[in-house]
Amino acid sequence: MIKHPSPEVNNNISDNPTISGFPSILLGQLQISAEDAKANGAISARSITVFGAKVDTGQMWNNIKLFRNELLVVDDTGSTRTEYQLAQHNNCVYSVPNDQVCEEMGDMFDIGKIRCLRRPPKWKHADASIPMLGGDTLLFLGQFYAAKSKLMNQYFGSGQSIYLFTLASGDTLKFQAFMQDTSEQTAEDHYRLEEQMMAFDSHYKHIDEVEILIKAGDKYLHQYIAEHKRSGKEILTVLLQYAKTKSLKQQILKRLALA
Predict the structure, then answer these.
(1) Is pLDDT of 91 > 80?
(2) What is the pLDDT of residues 25-77, one digit of tens each?
(3) For the residues of 174-208, what is the DSSP string, one character each?
(4) How far apart are CA 222 and CA 243, in angstroms?
(5) Domain ranges of the chain
(6) Torsion (CA) 176, 180, 185, 189 in degrees, nearest 10
(7) pTM of structure
(8) How many CB atoms lie within 10 A of CB 246?
(9) How far is CA 239 from CA 52, 133, 223, 228, in A?
């Protein structure tokens, strides 16, 4: 389960850790059950909290200070608490210093092959950079949205989604992340989509409830359902009735032909 921060939580900037000496803002929290942890190579249930900060680069451009984003990922199992500071190091992926980073551009990689804790990322796939290791993707844990607000603009920047990936080694997790501008969606749109995707994951066996979701959903939900591994012939047939674009209809028809 992903928890999105409330404005009240974000107001407690002074309680948040600093990143490279700069104040951070809470971006979100992810709970991983013991069952999910063991299924993906770890051992313990854990809470993962993500903070972000604007870090002064010490450089200027046209008399404007230049900043870069950095992330702090806190992995808390209850008995151990480990912090990982992620930044960009000569590539698009955010990682700890000296970490092995291999990335694949989204337009060269089938989104259906991304290893996911629960569901695939919602992003502009062709423009994404996917952390890789040995020909496989790192495990995609979830995404967090930097909603538009005065505080978010001040301490991190808004309109971006942060996509968090991990690799388990025993009970130790390594983290890498990718960020993408998703500012065409409002925070309300983003959170509503998150709820709708969770509802589909829970009720995909009930076609009447799925149809209600499809009717109420936008193009992002429709794309999610079209790509979902649980979307069988019955669901795809319903989705085809409500698909709003020619490309999505073609994608659905292609899957139906293989069903």
Answers:
(1) yes
(2) 999 999 998 888 888 888 889 999 999 999 998 887 777 888 899 999 999 99
(3) EEEEEEEE-TTS-HHHHHHHHHHHHHHHHHTT-HH
(4) 7
(5) 2-183, 188-258
(6) -10
(7) 0.71
(8) 8
(9) 37, 35, 10, 12
